Please model this.
Amino acid sequence: MERYELNDNDKMLIDTALAVLKENFDDGIYNHTVGCAVLCKNGIVYKGVNCDGIHGSCAEYITIGSAISAGERDFDTIVAVHDKYLNYVIPPCGNCRQMLFEYCPDIKVIVNDENGKLIKVKAKDLLPFA
Ligand SMILES: [Zn+2]
Model:
């Protein structure tokens, strides 16, 4: 699995995900606990939070769906963060890994490595034998 170092764009992307989370987290009912941001290859950033419900939808789905609805198809990097108080990067769940693999297997995903250091890996490497 190839690993990539974070650059200034990645730090901006994390800040964007944290900002959308802080703007939309609902205290008391603990809704919208994950923020996400995706950088498209054209430089445009889309963001979103998870939507709660019986089946719910992860922030990654909301964010990629928003970008796709705007006509985007080429994605560079994605990150998700949790929660308003703890502010840490979280890896995509299995369902999101499958979605990322199908839409953009080469998108880079910001995750923590075994030592807690932020790195980027390709979505296809997060779901071997998909
Ligand atoms: Zn997910």
